[in-house]
Amino acid sequence: MNHSVKKSAEKTGEPSQGSHHEQYLTFRLSKEMFAIGILGIREIMEYGELTSVPMMPTFVRGVINLRGSVVPVIDLAARFGREQSEINRRSCIVIFEIEGAEGRQEIGVIVDEVSEVLEIANADIEPPPGFGARIRPDFIAGMGKVGQRFVIILDMQQVVDVEEMAELAQLQDDSADLLEE
Asked: Where does it primarily localize (predicted)?
């Protein structure tokens, strides 16, 4: 069930209307709708077997082998401070690239269900709210107006900040060492 995001975007049948519109992949996570820009997305895969990695933060569910590359997989719900995602038949892993200190890196995120690719006009994107969101404000790039509702547009560079996740893994490792003493 590998999907090319570009093919998904073509299926929407919506013409590109210049630089004032951006395309976003929408997905559900714990009954909430989120969106991420499609430019960094490489593919969407059916949830499969993960290899767990000891001593990682709880939101790092494991790694997958993607055409010979080791790709870490993050549970977005757990990353947002919620319970780990319950895997079901609609669960997917969205693979995308981020820019890290060591160059570009592929990362997978677990989502409950992929919805669709939407075009959202830049004029229909509001700044992140100062309060009231159930996730960290720095994870939110904006609030996209879609019809009569808003969708939270995530800043994936912040959500999967590799240096922050490495620091969290180190803190967890240090805590385990202290407990053993």
From this structure: cytoplasm
